[in-house]
Amino acid sequence: MLIVGARGHAVEVLQCLPVAEREQAIFFDDVTPNQPLQVLGQYPLLRTYAEALAYLADIDPRFVLGLGGPALRQRMARQFQACGGLLTSVIAATSVIEPHVAEMGAGLNLMHHTLVSPSARLGEGVLLNAGAAVHHDTEVGDYCEISPGARILGRCSLGNGCRIGALAVVLPDVIIGEQAVIGAGAVVTRNVPAGATVAGVPAVPLQPR
């Protein structure tokens, strides 16, 4: 399986793969200079887009997203899907997906010790990082990034491309607009407009400098 990315989060994604998949993993990174040709001294690294496409066409069409940032994740997913790649989810064995989850899109990263509660909906390409939780009846839009330890409580709604900082808490029934950013450790008690950045306890909009 091809992991798009070769540093940081990509290596964490590797550790969430089943053992059999991990042994066959291969990485792709065409932007980082002076990158060794093996990741962790063991896993092959493809350095050109042509090599990656050949791998998807001839060996295994599946690819997983091993990078952060909603816009970049979506762009890379679309780029490889357009060439026949199959966007695939990574779900760590330690994650807890409760029965009766309403919907889980393609290309998820559900990292170690994450929780997805009943009637939750996760859109395409969502990154739910280590120890984060999405509680009941919450809807998470496409390509949202929920950082380690964050908690999205019941009946919330996150628009596409949101970024939720580490250890942030979004209280029940809050609506967060598309591409909004929630600062680390924030407690969000009221709705957040699209594109806004909020931080603090309780969270308030950050003023431009």
Pick out its properties.
alpha/beta; eight-stranded mixed sheet; 209 residues; 4 helices; 27% strand; UDP N-Acetylglucosamine Acyltransferase, domain 1; Rossmann fold
Strand order of the main beta sheet, please?
Answer: 7-10-13-16-19-22-24-25
Task: Work out the strand percent.
Answer: 25-35%
Low-confidence stretches: none
Order of helices and strands: EHHEEEHEHEEEEEEEEEEEEEEEEEEEE
So, the CATH homologous superfamily of the largest domain? Answer: Hexapeptide repeat proteins
Specify the oligomeric state: single chain
The residue-averaged pLDDT reads: 96
Q: What's the story with the biggest beta sheet? A: 8 strands, mixed
CATH class of the largest domain: Mainly Beta
CATH architecture of the largest domain: 3 Solenoid
- Helicity level, as a percent range? 10-25%
The shape, in one word, is globular
- The structural domain count equals 2
Protein structure class? alpha/beta
Q: What separation lies between the terminal Cα atoms?
A: 44 Å
How would you characterize this protein structure?
This protein has 209 residues and is α/β, with parallel strands linked by helices. The chain folds into two domains: 2-88, Rossmann fold; 89-199, UDP N-Acetylglucosamine Acyltransferase, domain 1, CATH 2.160.10.10. It has four helices and 25 strands. The chain has helices at 9-16, 19-23, 49-58, 70-81, and strands spanning 2-4, 26-28, 38-39, 43-46, 62-65, 86-87, 90-91, 96-97, 103-104, 109-110, 115-116, 121-122, 127-128, 133-134, 139-140, 145-146, 151-152, 157-158, 163-164, 169-170, 175-176, 181-182, 187-188, 197-199, 204-205. The strands form four sheets. An eight-stranded mixed β-sheet has the order 7-10-13-16-19-22-24-25, with no helix packed on it. A hairpin with a 3-residue loop joins strand 3 (38-39) and strand 4. The N and C termini lie far apart (44 Å). The mean pLDDT is 96.
